[in-house]
Amino acid sequence: MNTLSFPELIKKTAASKSINSLSLTVKERKFPIEIEGCEGALYSLIITHIYNSEGGKGQFFIIVPHDTTADGLMMDLETSGIPCFKLNWWGSAPYRELTPQAAVFGERVKVLSGLALNKPGIYIISERALLTYVPPPDYIKSLLISLKSGEQFDTTNLAKTLVSYGYTRVPRVQVNGEFALRGEVLDIFMGGEDQAVRVLFDFDRIETIKYFDPIMQGTGSEILSELIIRPMK
Asked: How far is CA 186 from the centre of its chain?
């Protein structure tokens, strides 16, 4: 049985008259557009073509009926190589508060931070999440902490801020929402991330920023020029 990867499917369908006509209609902003006969992974193929036809820049918003639909679309679009983000709904029962350690806090802040900073990509939002109130962009941006290699930083004040942001200080970082500050080394595992980050200081100056494996307690080879720290709540 022959199978095609997502990039190969994009190339194969690029010659489709229907898809080219759709991309042209979007460019000319002839809205609304109704599409018939679209099922399964074809949604993600069409979205990818439209995104690429717009130059692969800017923020695109995909509104879907349910969270399960959002999850499926997210899985398909992730294979395209396009930056994709899903704004999760709270997922709680009516009138029931979430625990402060709920992962959804960090996941939502990650997406809202990307929106506030005009990070390009495709944002997938369910109807429930769309109807949920969110803070203004300027408020989100005011909470973000930027760490850049070569800059000076006060680690004592940073630790206090991280605690107020909902992080838990631990001797060794293992899960999302934890940070460890030992001498001139800061390990932090932000919400919504699969990897932690290690920041090495030379006295009060940031020396290097690298991804960090909480299980093996080792860093990778990739050096980051900047780290944007987000709140956990």
From this structure: 22
d(CA 152, CA 164): 21
Task: Quote the number of domains for the chain.
Answer: 2
pTM attached to this predicted model: 0.86
Domain containing residue 222: 144-229
Give residue for tokens 């390009």.
120
Backbone Cα Rg of the chain: 21
- Provide the CATH number for the domain around residue 171: 3.30.2060.10
- CB-CB contact of 85 with 122 (8 Å): yes
Lowest mean pLDDT among 67-76, 111-120, 209-218, 224-233: 209-218
Tokens 């720290």 identify what position?
Answer: 229
Q: How far apart are CA 131 and CA 124, in angstroms?
A: 13
Q: Are residues 127 and 150 in the same domain?
A: no
Statement to judge: residues 106 and 30 lie in one domain: yes
